[in-house]
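Limitations

Structures in this collection are predictions, not experimental determinations, and the ligand pose is part of the prediction. Treat each record accordingly. The example that follows, with tryptophanyl-5'AMP as the small molecule, is included so readers can see exactly what is and is not provided: the inputs are given verbatim, and the output is the predicted complex.
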Amino acid sequence: MSSDDGQDVPATRESPIRPRAFSGIQPTGTVHLGNYLGALRNWVDLQDTTDGVYCVVDLHALSVPREPGEVRQATIEAVKDLLAIGIDPDRSILFVQSHVREHTELTWHMQCVAAFGELRRMTQFKDKSESNDFVSAGLFTYPTLQAADILLYDTDIVPVGDDQRQHVEFTRDLAIRFNNRYGDVLVVPEHRIPEAGARVMDLQNPGGKMSKSADSPQGTVLLTDSEADITRKFKRAVTDNDAEVRFDPERKPGVSNLLTILAVATDGDPVQLASGYSQYGPLKADATQAILELLRPIQKRRAELDDPEVVQLLARGADKARAVAVPVMDRVRAAVNLL
Ligand code: TYM
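Predicted complex:
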């Protein structure tokens, strides 16, 4: 596939039997319902039709200050979440970013085709740099590492939530620019964002997305939350005063978020579901039940996993990931054609 003289560098796999999907998640505390409904359930489904490559992006987590070892354990926890939801390490490649050194090497090449102004316009950078006292250069160049993650695997499809749309579009721009400069080397990927659930909102502050770093933990449902916690979080979910159940994300963000969660969990339609309720109480109760049912088997599987087993499985995952990444990096090196 690669060549020594920089010639003959095909942009796609030689026999792409199935498209390749790649995505990643940061190991920063347990996975929440937003991650699951917005992205991870798609990772699981795509295993039937694509070659999946799924990565716990530990280097990304270092873009804000962390204690030594903090990311290490969080990585194991994130992998357990992924196994529990149904990522099958025999069908997909499941691995940790820092185990495949090519990610950082390709990042440099991405930084050299990325414009400073483009990075400055990234909304995630703007949001995160406003809420952090120390803004690292890594936080600024974060999207170039993300681009390298994706491009290193000749990725066709990137299943993500809506908040990653801009990063995937940026990745496409970088791939096209790199190809214009060096030849047809990188596959230009597309995002896969679900119609419903792409932006699950915080239960306490439905104007903002559900996130691990929310002001109040009460607004974020974790996959590992107890039944009592989940019930309480939904019961206390912020709605509004006019007591009408209607799907209207602009004017009724809290109620619409509950309808979205219920719809995604039950394969329903939020507008149709709304017509079945005249009060908030029953809607909250049904959303609670739907999520408890969804999470019960996940929590059961998760409890059966132990750390040594996970570490072993990740070593195999890293080998499989390298087998894809190394030839792509070889192609990049050949195309750039340094001495
Ligand atoms: P991260 O770790 O913040 O989130 C993982 C995935 O969950 C989605 N997500 C949501 N979807 C719906 N509603 C929400 N409230 C919500 N919160 C999070 C995210 O869109 C994401 O798909 N930069 C990425 C990680 C990354 C990556 C990559 C993703 C690194 N390299 C390469 C794809 C491809 C991030 O921080 O995701």
